[in-house]
Write a structure and sequence with these properties.
Distance between the termini: 36 Å
Strand content: under 5%
Largest sheet: 2 strands, antiparallel
Number of helices: 8
Helix content: 55-70%
Order of helices and strands: HHHHHHHHEE
Shape: elongated
Length: 180
C-alpha cells in the first residue's frame, strides 16, 4: 500500500482519531457502549455510511452546485443511513431495538458530515473511500474498547459470555452515561 493511502487509512487509529483527538461523535459513543455487541454493530453501520458517503460525494464533487452542497451531502448520508437501519431491522432486530434512534442520528454525526465536507469534497474517490474507512474504524476501535470495559465491569461479561463469577453483582455506575 502506498504511503499516502496507508496514512489515510491508519491515521484515524492514533494521531487523528475522531473521538479521542477530534472529540467528535461523543453522544452516540456514550449511548451505544454499554455492551460490546451494540458497539460492534454501530461501528459497522457508521463505517459503512461514512465510507460510502465519502465515496459518493467524492465522485459527485465536481457536479454538485455549491449553493446546495450541504443538502446533497445530507441527502446522500440520510439515504445510506436509512438503508443501514433497514438492514439492521431485517437481520439484527434485537440489536436494532437496542440502538434505536442512535442509528438514525448517524445522519447528523459530526464525523460523517465533517469528513464529507472537509475531505470528500476536495479529494479523489479512492482517497475519500480510504479516509471514510479509516475514520469509521478509528471511531469503532474506541467504541469497542469502551464497551468492553463497561460490559465487563457492569455485567461481569464480555459479548454476553460470563467473565466473572456468578456472584459478581455488577457495577451499575459504569452502565450509566457518567460511567463511560
Amino acid at each position: 500500500m502506498a504511503s499516502a493511502a496507508k496514512k489515510l487509512l491508519m491515521d484515524p487509529f492514533s494521531d487523528n482519531n475522531p473521538i479521542t483527538v477530534q472529540v467528535l461523535g461523543i453522544c452516540s459513543a456514550l449511548a451505544v457502549t454499554v455492551k460490546v455487541d451494540t458497539a460492534i454493530v454501530m461501528t459497522l453501520a457508521l463505517t459503512s455510511v461514512l465510507t460510502l458517503s465519502n465515496l459518493i460525494i467524492s465522485v459527485l464533487r465536481n457536479v454538485i452546485p455549491s449553493g446546495i452542497r450541504m443538502i446533497v451531502e445530507m441527502a446522500v448520508i440520510a439515504s445510506l443511513v436509512i438503508i443501514a437501519d433497514q438492514l439492521l431491522r431485517a437481520y439484527l432486530f434485537d440489536i436494532s431495538k437496542q440502538l434505536s434512534v442512535f442509528v438514525g442520528l448517524i445522519i447528523t454525526n459530526c464525523i460523517v458530515m465533517g469528513r464529507a465536507e472537509a475531505f470528500a469534497l476536495q479529494n479523489p474517490p479512492k482517497d475519500s473511500l480510504l479516509d471514510g474507512l479509516g475514520n469509521g474504524l478509528g471511531y469503532g476501535i474506541i467504541l469497542i474498547a469502551v464497551a468492553s470495559i463497561r460490559e465487563f465491569f457492569g455485567f461481569g461479561s464480555w459479548l454476553g459470555f460470563k467473565a466473572l463469577p456468578e456472584n459478581y453483582m455488577g457495577n451499575g455506575l459504569v452502565l450509566l452515561a457518567p460511567g463511560a
